[in-house]
Amino acid sequence: MEKPIWEDKSSYSQDKPSGTVKPSIWTIETGSLSITVHRHVHYEKEDWLVSSHEIGIDKDLLSQRDIEKAKEEAIRFVKMKLTILIDEISKL
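The structure assignment produced for this chain is given below.
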């Protein structure tokens, strides 16, 4: 199995095609789980957020402003959330 890679999922208008503006949405998918690092209009333009709807993460603010560091932080954040969920399930 190949290692998943981050994909640019930004939408581009015809007057600003891909390659002329910086991507604003990055997604990585691993089977049934997807992690998205993105911008949002209600946050500062430099802010990155993480969403992973399969596990209830929606627009959580990341501390990193550099996209590569934000992607790494997002993966750590999702791993932490999954650990919490596993701990909760194991108590059943």
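Interim note for the steering committee: The longest strand covers residues 25-30. Residues 7-90 form one domain.
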